[in-house]
Amino acid sequence: MLIANPKATSNSRRARDLLVRAFAGDLDLETAETGYRGHATELAARAAAERFDLVIALGGDGTVNEVINGLLADGPSPDVPALAVLPFGSANVFARALGLPNDTVGATRQVLEALRAGRHRTVGLGAAVLPDASERYFTFCAGVGLDAEVIREVERARLAGAKADPLLYVRTGVRQFFAGTDRRRPALTLELPGRDTRAAKGKLYLAFVSNTAPWTFAGPFPVNPSPKASFARGLDVFGMRSLDVLPTLGALAGMFAARVRPVRGRRVLNVHDATQVTLTADRPTAYQLDGDYLGEVERITFRSVPKAIRIVI
User: Fold this and answer.
1) From its phi and psi, is residue 202 left (phi > 0), alpha (psi between -120 and 50) or beta?
2) Closest residue by Cα to residue 152 from 294, 8, 306, 255
């Protein structure tokens, strides 16, 4: 089953039809278009229930996230269909982290070669667990605090007709930093069950939970708060203990420059290869998964899910 998001940033029906024809010689293919938020999850869950061999996600990171949550509705299993990802959004962080080209034609060629060779890779995921015990998987990152507030405001701007490009994120981020977020009262506390918690002491203004590196992209440039994060390990956490201008600028500079070592400093928190982390908040705080704003929480647990899904790559 090929699940296509007709509203993905660079999508068009003609391009989608060309891709369908590219796969037609190798696959007995059913194509399904998403019509609303959460539809890709429903379609992928049906594909899993009907024992499809493969699901192809054609869209951005939001579409991929929905597809994975549909495939894993009953949890990871060898019976779950394999997943192929064709990047068709604005950022395509997960596809790029897998090593796919950031263009749909190049990615299609690589996926077809992998299919013909029977080649796949099993990767770990993260899962966010809410107080009501509901759970949602994420592929590359989760965020609590300022970054989720920025994504919320970007989504509002897109609904009003703004184009989703890096400049929109930059403008929104600067505006939210100076005029939107609370930079005086940190709300977050990090808990690390079963680990030395001395490094986690003190309140945080924001936290990124990474399942791979880089965490996201600013256009062609990777943003890397936790460069040691990997699909083959547990979760990494980057947190800020201050949102004063100079420490924040220093952390941003480090994220763009970091390749091997994480950003360091007394205003920064780093956790590597954690099985589980919990963030509690003094007040309702915005959170996001894989770049989708999902609301506000006062407590959320993130856990590592090793070898969760097979990716054709």
Assistant:
1) left
2) 294
Where the chain has pLDDT below 50, the residues are none
DSSP classification of residue 71: H
Distance between alpha carbon 198 and the CA centroid of its chain, in Å?
28
φ, ψ for residue 224, nearest 5 deg: -135, 70
Q: Rounded to the nearest 10 degrees, how much is the dihedral formed by the CA atoms of 156, 159, 160, 162?
A: 90
User: What stretch of H or E contains 288?
Assistant: strand 276-289
Give CA–CA dist 307/310, Å, rounded: 8
Round to whole Å and give the CA distance between 88 and 102.
Answer: 8
Question: What pTM does this model have?
Answer: 0.94
Instruction: Give the integer Cα–Cα distance in Å for 141 and 213.
Output: 9
Whether 269 and 241 have beta carbons less than 8 Å apart is answered as: yes
The helices-and-strands tally (H runs, E runs) of the chain is: 8, 15
Structure tokens at 5: 């998001």
Query: What does residue 64 show for φ and ψ, rounded to 5 degrees?
Result: -60, -45
State yes or no: cis peptide before 76, omega within 30 of 0. Answer: no
For the stretch 123-154, pLDDT in tens is 999 999 999 999 999 999 999 999 999 999 99
Residue 198 and residue 185: Cα distance in Å, rounded? Answer: 21
Query: What is residue 197's predicted lDDT score, i.e. its pLDDT?
Result: 58
Beta-carbon contacts of residue 294 (< 8 Å; ≥ 6 apart): 136, 287, 288
Q: Tens of pLDDT along 18-60? A: 888 889 889 999 999 999 999 999 999 999 999 999 999 999 9
Determine the Cα–Cα distance for residues 295 and 118; give it in Å rounded to an integer. 40
Exposure on the CB side of residue 10, measured as CA atoms within 13 A:
17
Tell me the C-alpha distance between 234 and 192, whole Å: 13
Three-state secondary structure call for residue 199: helix
Name residue, tokens 């993130």: 302
